[in-house]
Amino acid sequence: MVSKFRIPARWREMDQLQREMNRLFEGSSVKHTSGSHKYPAINLWANEEGQIIRAEMPGIKADDINIDVTSDTLTISGIRSHDEAVENNRYHRQERGYGSFTRTLQLPFMIDTGTVEATFKNGVLDIRLQRAESDKPKKIAVKSE
Amino acid sequence: MAKKENKSLEIPEQEVIKADEMERTRSRRCYIPKTDIYETEDEIILVADVPGADQDSVDIALEKNILSINAFVETDVPAGYDRIYSEYEGGDYQRSFRLSDEINQNNIKAVVSNGELRLHLPKAEPAKAKKIKVKAA
Description:
Shape of chain A: flat
Number of strands of chain B: 10
CATH topology of the domain at 30-75 and 90-126 in chain B: Immunoglobulin-like
Shape of chain B: elongated
Structural class of chain A: alpha+beta
Order of helices and strands of chain B: EEEEEEEEEE
Oligomer: heterodimer
Radius of gyration of chain B: 20 Å
Number of strands of chain A: 8
Strand content of chain B: 35-45%
Radius of gyration of chain A: 24 Å
Number of helices of chain B: 0
Largest sheet of chain B: 5 strands, mixed
Strand order of the largest sheet of chain B: 1-2-8-6-5
Structural class of chain B: mainly beta
Helix content of chain B: under 10%
Largest sheet of chain A: 4 strands, antiparallel
């Protein structure tokens, strides 16, 4: 009978452990998340000079992708169209999504909007952003008096 | 079709092939590519999403009515950069389909463009309908 009352207390302990573990992983340097995000899913690389944003966008034509930048935001938008004359065709299976998308990212630093480069190869979009010269960290010499 | 384009595109839920279903010699993830299959008057068209793959990395095999698609994707990691955020993991693609006899298996065409694999499976000449006489006992 004793153990019957102890179990809930242990569960609470387990719950707490679970929460601690979750916090631990949330704090790790690379976050791997999925599900609730907007299309397209992105991966992000950075160094002191700039950033690379990569997105998988299969089946979209380069002409159908728009990229807009301001000094600290980047918007990817576009459309994935159906095959032509698809109305007359009979679908056996349809798993791929179609439609339009817009995703705006807040950038962690000011960028030089004149040097943004985007390439689209094999359905993978790469955007290279250069950090603005004025935004780069500066070394400040400390003078002794 | 314009009215349908108002729909917003969502991130597809990617299905991973588990290790116990297929032993793999590569340590990368392997996804089941999202595929559309539709039929026109004289062919069946199969379209699969294989982002990152090109014509050299896609391998298509046909054996005993089983059409297998394999795409090996090499992703280059930007040198000198650290990955700071990630919403997806690149991987290979693998999927098999069983073809029916109504396809002319000698004349299958495949094209890869923009990370999309498109297979044209021509329909065979309609098999002659056989009449079977029922004999009275």
